[in-house]
Amino acid sequence: MKKLLLVSFNLILAVCIIQTTGEPKTPSGTSGTGSANPKIAAAYQGTKQVAVYATLKDYEEAKGISITKFGEAPSLAAKVSAGEIPSVEERLPEEPLVVLPADKIGSYGGNLVNPHMGNIDFLEDMLREFPLMFTNDLKRIVPNIIKDWVVNPSATEYTFHIRKGIKWSDGVAFTSDAFLFWYQAYAMNMELNPHGISHFKDGNNKMGIMTKIDDYSFKVGFSTPNGIILEKMCRFRPVPYLPGHYLKQFHPLYSDPAQVEKLAKDEGFSSWVELFNNKRYYFDNPDSPTIFAWMPTNKANAQVHILERNPYFWAIDAAGNQLPYADGVHRVNLGNQETIVLKALAGDVDYVHPYVLGYDKNYPLFKREEARGKYRIITQGGWSTFLGSLMFNMNSPDTLLKRLFNQKDFRIALSVGMDRNAMNEVVFKGQYTPSQAGPPVGPPYYGESGKFKQYTEYDMDMANSILDKLGLKWNDGKTTRLRPDTGAPLEIVAIVNTDWTQTIQICEIMKDNFQKLGINLILKPLAQQFFGEKRDARDYQIAITTIGFGGSKMDFASLNGGAVPRSPNWSVSPDWGLWIMSEGKDGVEPPDDVKRLAEISKSFVQESDEVNRQKLEAEVFDIHAENLWYISSLKQPGDLPQVFYVPVSRRLVNVSDPVAGEWYYAVPESWSIDE
């Protein structure tokens, strides 16, 4: 059966490869690599890093180059000739975004082939168009959909100007109404978002107020200063705009409520809320208009999820050619990591995220085979994550476990009872670092300092001494500790997120360590979706997963959600998070240090000075180091090339080197296929 499945996957992938190969396609009316401006194309020399300019005028002033003619893909030129779509000049906005590719002016044609294991994975980040964006190196904020903005002196009011003339993929004008519809129909709707949108809140946990100025301008006001809304506009998930002209039919405020509910039932949904959320999810809805570079033609769960170019995409290259270069994206479900690795080694896929490849697990193989010429390895900007991190149900219905989990000494006992060196050697060949959850190394947070390493030394004597003092006595044979309330063996059930392939290996060592302490750790592996559902439902005793903990440039968009309580399902304790988010109306009142984290989160939002934000974040890290609410096993450093690497097929050009830590900032619409 396995052989049959593999043959099927190979046949599917072969179809995709056949569709993407053949003679290179070029912009209409040209030859060779071609361009709307062949002289610019011939002279263009990339810097290995993609760059953007807000408008044609900005580009001309910076480079002394005037773009007066536009090129387009041959497939679109044919549709223009057939009268199916307007000319490229009519499809582009008055002020297109100008993209300078990393290597050269590209060629039109082909399909980017991306393998996956049955989920959307990072496709969302690759395709999503944020209002603003970070540069590929994550150091600056640059225009995108929003071409410029004005901030009042107190940072309580922001005026945003959309580039004029963007169109949805169905040709309908994209205006400030797209943001207003998102705000009124989605963000402020209590059925869709009972707790509001965290990215759109000020320091008092109040939603901002959005008002329309004109078709291409809107204003956002806050009750207190909001110093990080620009950073948030670079990472807003889901994006803060929606195609109201399409989605109104699924919303009871814009259509007959009875008809909307009937439509929901007819399509198998329990309510209009489920219907609306399904329809707004662009990646799985071919009917939804988009302003992204590519648009889906079938459902995301198809064996080959096919996306094709958006004829109304609103960016051009440095020679005036409308982007994207690639005709489409073919996402092939290869089912498992092993098959994906084989196809990537053969150069049969164009790009693969390192987590799909198991990070360092397969790096030596890819590095060894790189010389065969099927692909090249590009370093990716990484981030520190903490593997095998334990989170406790601080409000467990089990009275004994609740008492133990809330005692720092018990958490310390578990921490020093873990053999992190064995985990590191067995699972990662010694490349990772024993660590508690904390910030990146070096300035300004110095995550390598001792306070983030405390209680990481394997010390069974210390662990046993603490457990003895907590009244957890051994049985007569000293094979297990006994519950003081019932006399039964002490067992703790841990749900384990299996989306990180090494987590189970870490947990098996952990289970063996805890057994020597007399604690039976029962592991319940769950895929991420079900893991999250269990945790959010408070249906767990211990939850084990991989966490990020902030401290990077992108975290200035908001303090890391694992570090501060800005969600009713906060991972330290969902009930504490709910108490904070509901202002004490629901949930369980947390300790004072958690309340301080909430205060810091508010101050952080109001602070526009980066240095002051760093001081606030440093205090967050110190509070966690003091309380040890999380227990982490190993730190995955963010600068290891054997962890953060991307095999890119030799036919794919214009991928920034190094590539951004988050794919979107690499501007994949500028990637080109060179056969």
Question: Key features?
Answer:
single chain; 675 residues; alpha+beta; D-Maltodextrin-Binding Protein, domain 2; Dipeptide-binding Protein, domain 1; Dipeptide-binding Protein, domain 3; 3 domains; 6-stranded mixed sheet; 22 helices; globular
List the helices and strands and how they pair.
Blueprint: H1 2-20, H2 38-43, E1 51-53, H3 56-63, H4 74-81, H5 88-91, E2 97-100, E3 111-116, H6 123-127, E4 132-134, E5 141-143, E6 146-151, E7 157-162, H7 177-187, E8 209-214, E9 217-221, H8 229-233, H9 244-247, H10 257-266, H11 272-280, E10 294-296, E11 304-309, E12 315-317, E13 328-333, H12 337-345, H13 363-369, E14 375-379, E15 385-392, H14 399-405, H15 408-416, H16 420-428, E16 433-434, H17 460-469, E17 491-497, H18 503-516, E18 520-526, H19 528-536, E19 542-548, H20 574-581, H21 592-606, H22 610-627, E20 634-636, E21 645-649, E22 652-653, E23 672-673
Helix pairs in contact: 15-17, 21-22
Structure description:
With 675 residues, the protein is of the alpha+beta class. It folds into three domains: 2-128 and 292-378 and 645-673, 3-Layer(aba) Sandwich (D-Maltodextrin-Binding Protein, domain 2), CATH 3.40.190; 132-243, Dipeptide-binding Protein, domain 1; 385-636, Dipeptide-binding Protein, Domain 3 (Dipeptide-binding Protein, domain 3, Roll), CATH 3.10.105.10. The protein contains 22 helices and 23 strands. The protein has a six-stranded mixed beta sheet. Strands 3-13-11-10 form a four-stranded mixed beta sheet, covered by helices on one side. Strand 8 (209-214) and strand 9 (217-221) form a beta hairpin. Helix 15 (408-416) packs antiparallel against helix 17 and helix 21 (592-606) packs antiparallel against helix 22. It is globular and about 90 Å long. The model is unreliable at 1-34 (pLDDT under 50).
